[in-house]
Please model this.
Amino acid sequence: MSKPVLGRDPFTQPVPTAAKPQKKTKTVKKPPPPPAPPDVLKNRGQPQTMEQQTTPQTSRADAKKEIDRVELLEGTEAQAGPFQNLLYKSTRFVRPDYYGQKLGEVGMRFRAEEVDPFGFDPVYWEKLEPIFEFLFDNYFRVDLFGLQNVPDQGRVLLVANHSGTLPYDGAMIKVAVENRHMSGRPVRFLVEDFVFHFPFLGSFMNRIGGVRACQDNARRLLQNEQLVVVFPEGVKGIGKLFWDRYKLQRFGRGGFIKLALRTNSPIIPVAVVGAEEIHPMLARLGFLARTLKLPYIPVTPTFPLLGPLGAIPLPSKWLIQFGRPISLAQYTPEDADDALKIMQLAEKVRSTIQQMVTELLKKRKTVFT
Amino acid sequence: MPEKQAGDGESAQVVAITGSLEFFGSGLVDRLESDPRYRKILAIDVRAPSASGHKVTFCPVDLTTPEAGHELAALFRSNRVNTVVHLAFLSHPIHDTAYAHELQVIGTMHVLNAVAAAQRGKTRVKKVVMLSSTMVYGARPDNPNFLQEDRPLKKIPNCPFVNDLVEAEEQLHQFANKHPKVNTTVLRMGCLLGPRVDGVLPRLLACSTVPSVMGYDPLFQFLHETDALDALKLALDQDQEGIFNIVAEGVLPFSTVLRLGGKVSIPIPHFLWEKVSGFLWAFQALDIPPSFLDFLRYLWMADGTKARRRLGFSPRFTTRETLLEFVRSSRLSQAPAASGTVMRSAR
Model:
């Protein structure tokens, strides 16, 4: 729909191709656009606006005006006279635009101007990285095994066990591969659906590299030769009670196997030990969770008792092992439709990771050392 | 009957454009005017254009009247129309939802009926291009990041604006099944932004303070209005059939959009905003219906690879460039939200 002030659209002939000779065969002269309400112009005390107020009335919708308009849009203060400049400078503090711009500039310190197609914001992550580095090195004192099994490039699916009430395991795997692996390749992890129903959680996950878990997204990532971390246990894994720790739950419906088959990606099993103890969950509040539409509300020895302080994880000792790649090369993408085979393969991967977890538990002397 | 309409004279095409006064209509008329492959343009709208070129013939037809189908069929036959471009859609939701339904759904029905009637004549309508929006996918928490054209469309409760588009697309789909000889193309435009185009987002972003939904930060793709017109022209020039998402490269989270644009954002909790905006909408104090809040909460980005591959559409502006361009131009011109009424073209 046309905006009367702008007149005949200058943007149908965009700036780079403005030189294209287009014959204006206008027979009827356009009616002059209605003059802008004076208060609007007063509010925006820009010299450009003042000039603009006069241009539509004096000139027709011809090429010259379009050039003028383009110059106006490029808008430099240098074009204006000294008086107008002074006026502009002295009045800019009273315009709300000014504060919006300043606020935006401050806000942009925490944001990148370009995010990747899945919303990962490198600047945001850069600001948060020290916290996760601290957790990795000093707090959880993560020991890594078999990091060399992660390939330097090419599509790969990391399948890990999930635990710990809050998904610190995803963050630690991210730090391990991005900052400790030779390649430093970016890590994308698939995030449970329910997270995106909630305020703050979903957008936070998105900014640090989480992607909503669905076949479409994961396939797109793998086809772009990315490293994708997936936790097939999902909510069942992360919301385990303390006495079920290190018992791997069912691996979903084998969606990750279908994904690996369809994209022909190798699977690297990852075992995480230590995350189970950061928030030992004693019970789940079902009723409250249902009213808040959360999958569960944890009760830990500290959580509702100490309020927000209870959300601080316990400093357990972590061990992360990256297993040997499981190749699915002998299967074809058509096997992705064979439900029985899928479940069989998923179970095979699950038992591999279970075994790795059991081995790792033997390496750890106590929970905290 | 000429198969490829290259060249001029008798073999050049005759195009009928409904909604020719709206942004898309007028932009397309301008482009066809300078293209020798198009011989004649029937500009169909309710009001006469204030200026027109020598190829343009204005035909007043009101799509909301019951005789519209007849009138259009007669026009198509007598002018030997080859291509119908159906652009008579609202760019922004209006309070009069009954009228919107008449115009968008019943209007589409009239146009398609007329095309079907024009099949019997000597020169038949070979191609129908329809405008739509990626809004038809709906903003849902379980959307993948990039929606593809084959995703089934679902209606959104309490959102007649989008549902009308969905219904119009369904009609075209049924029409295409019934008339396999007619080439049907649907262009689902992404989130448009530009100094001239109207819509929910341009209006929202024209304000210096922009309300957002607290805790939600969906990703957005912004398509520059000139790119959208380019895509429309491409779809007309080529004989590609099907549905195409027309979107720009690059994405930006809404919070970054507001920061880059120098807007002050006011995060409002969803439950509060839902109530307040419903109330304000009911009293016509607000332009944005409450059902649109989901578009500020969840993802509704589309995948543009099909258009890139098959139409050869390559947008000139990225999302970020489009946004900066829009902000710059709206800072200098009057705010679009302050400029006049909704629906200037339809009435």
Q: What stands out?
A: Strands of chain A lie at 143-145, 156-160, 187-191, 210-212, 227-230, 267-273, 283-284, 298-299, 319-322.
